[in-house]
């Protein structure tokens, strides 16, 4: 496999052909913030938190979907990038109803961690305070649209790891939201296998285990990584020559 040599934050690194800038940077110990990215499933470049500056490009590029190229010179921590990332985090807080003090994922939330990392202790934007519902029709899980950041992790995990495709996106712009089985209540979604993968994939408190109280909702990312790796290596595919 061909090897590409590039420079990220003045550090000369090598990456495999076909790798993304995000993968190459993380392999080299260079942190790039993400929210919609989840290892083991497809990338969509939705949150734009992983934007980086590439020499020769007139626009910022999302590191999670940009392939490495020979001789690339990349910057990940410029003042411009930091300002963009802070603005994105503030927009997410202003657009939804994120009350950390009463959230089931308080202390275990990736959006909260990003806010702390970027020093977002207040939001300068006007809060939208949307009127959103909470779906607790499922026996085991709940969905709080107020805390959803539309990262689509749940959609991709359900489709690509579980194979159920219970979740999808409906609406446009400000009215966008995730829906189950053509906008049925989650508890009525016949395609749902109740596996919980979507709950573990959620970066915030939007998807949660019923009965969880403030700060109790934790996510088991290792479970998803294990499943994704096993599927990639075909570890669960039986040899057709073996007896049933």
Structural notes for this entry:
This protein starts with a strand and ends in a 12-residue tail after the last helix. Helix content is 24%, strand content 16%. A hairpin with a 6-residue loop joins strand 3 and strand 4. The strands form three sheets. The protein has a five-stranded mixed sheet, with helices on one face. The protein has helices at residues 21-27, 79-95, 110-117, 153-162, 197-201, 221-232, and strands spanning 3-8, 11-16, 51-54, 61-62, 73-75, 134-135, 141-144, 167-170, 177-180, 207-209. It folds into two domains: 3-22 and 33-81, Ubiquitin-like (UB roll) (Roll), CATH 3.10.20.740; 87-228, Alpha-Beta Plaits, CATH 3.30.70. The chain has 244 residues and is α+β, with helices and mostly antiparallel strands.
Shape, per Cα inertia axes: globular
Summed over residues and divided by their number, the pLDDT gives a mean of 93
Query: What is the domain total for the residues?
Result: 2
Rg over CA atoms, rounded to whole Å, is 20 Å
Main sheet characteristics: 5 strands, mixed
CATH topology of the largest domain: Alpha-Beta Plaits
* Beta-strand percent range: 15-25%
